[in-house]
Amino acid sequence: MEKLKERWGIESNWSLLAILIVFAINGSFAAWVAKPVTNFIGLNPDTISGFIYWPLRILLIFPIYQLTLPIVGWLFGQFKFFWEFEKKFLSRLGLGFLFKTEKE
């Protein structure tokens, strides 16, 4: 736990616990939200092959997870950590331009 605290720049055990809880809750939440979204766009395991449905649903969970992570983090008082986490993660995926600000 000390290595995580050092790596993430966290000082208190309570903050670390809150961050780990946010990761756990958000994973379940993203999977839960993906089901009605897939139904809304017409993807249903009863109407299409599971070989198509499940990969598409998993691909859909990824952006939902990324969008909801700072929100769930905010609910636990860890918005700053998760906002920085998202910016770093998306920058590694080549989407860092989304967070660049123009200098005046």
UniProtKB/TrEMBL annotation:
Signal peptide: none
Statement: the UniProt record of this protein carries the keyword Oxidoreductase: no
Keywords: Membrane, Transferase, Transmembrane, Transmembrane helix
Pfam families in the cross-refs: DUF6787
Segments traversing the membrane: 12-34, 54-77
Domain DUF6787 as annotated: residue spans: 19-97
UniProt-recorded Gene Ontology molecular function terms: transferase activity
Alphabetical list of InterPro entries matching this protein: DUF6787
Lineage: superkingdom: Bacteria
Keyword Transmembrane recorded: yes
Protein name: Diacylglyceryl transferase
Taxonomic source organism: Polaribacter aestuariivivens
